[in-house]
Amino acid sequence: MVVGLYALSLFGLEHSRVLRASYLPIRFVDDLLDGDAHGVPDPLAYAQELSQRIEHDNLTNSRIDRQLRYALEVLEPRALPTDNPRGDFIKAIQAIIFDYERASVKRLLSAKEIEQYFRDSFDPVINITLLAISSKLRSHNLPVLSYGQGRVYSARDFETDWKRGIINVPEDIISSAGFFPDSPLIRTWFSQNLAKTKPDLIADQSVIRQSGERQTQIVCNALISPLLKFIEVY
User: Fold this and answer.
1) How far apart are the two ends of the chain, measured CA to CA in Å?
2) DSSP readout, 134-199?
3) CB–CB of 20/14 below 8 Å?
4) Nearest-5° Cα angle at 175, 173 to 178
5) Range of 94's domain?
6) Burial degree of 39 (CB within 10 A; 0-12, 13-18, 19+)
């Protein structure tokens, strides 16, 4: 799962080019390992090698590598001492690889592991996004942006993810419900999880307003508003 950085770039922000350059490579890797993109003989090896090229600053002249090089050339000089955009790109790719590998064996996770998986998947992309729009906030200031997206997208995409072997329901719930995706126990678990998420999202909106950063308000509210709407109708 990847945050819609490309959609965020449509708000007319002056940083739209770096947002697109940051989003497109991550989305390509995600689509590649999901089977939605083609043209690479070994998608897993490609993702692993791309991660290594980013780490060792050895990007090629391919389209994806050029986009990443541009993004890093913009983001790294802009980074605060605690930022690591290069590391965030690597973490985002590693999270996609983790999804691919667990899907192949339908690996079940505990509730704690699922929450950590949400943070591992979304924290790096949120940090890249906030850095790209010159925000002083980071994912640790807005933690619900990570686990909130994870919880909502897991409920929204449950049937599709289930067929792919990605099961974002704790193993103890699955043990009680059995491997039946339409079990009421699973629906109840999602409902309870989303109910806990709503006040956290509203609290993050307050933090965003208090930041006084207009670009951060635009971008983060564009993420939070659909999450709240989904919770309302679930």
Assistant:
1) 20
2) T-S--TTTSTHHHHHHHHHHHHHTHHHHHHHT---S-HHHHHHH-S-TT-HHHHHHHHHHHHHHHH
3) no
4) 100
5) 5-233
6) exposed
State the pLDDT at residue 2.
44
User: 178-214 pLDDT, tens per residue?
Assistant: 888 899 999 999 999 999 999 999 999 999 999 999 8
Residue 190: closest CA among 217, 215, 224, 153: 153
Return the percentage of the chain with pLDDT > 90, whole number.
Answer: 83
Asked whether the beta carbons of 181 and 158 are under 8 A apart, the reply is: yes
- If you search the block for the tokens 């308000």, which residue do you land on? 217
Q: 67 near 24, Cβ under 8 Å?
A: yes
| pLDDT > 90? residue 19 | no
Q: Could you report the per-residue pLDDT of 38-84, keeping only the tens digit for each? A: 989 999 999 999 999 999 999 999 999 999 999 999 999 999 999 99
Distance CA 195, CA 105 (A): 30
Tell me, what CATH number does 42's domain have? 1.10.600.10
| C-alpha span between 112 and 136 (Å, rounded) | 29
Residue 11 clears pLDDT 60, i.e. is over it: no
> Is the dihedral angle over the CA atoms 135, 90, 93, 52 positive or is it negative?
positive
Q: Does 26 have pLDDT greater than 80? A: yes
Q: Enumerate the H helices of the chain as residue ranges.
A: 5-8, 16-34, 43-55, 63-78, 85-105, 111-132, 144-156, 158-164, 171-177, 184-211, 214-233
| Number of domains within the chain | 1
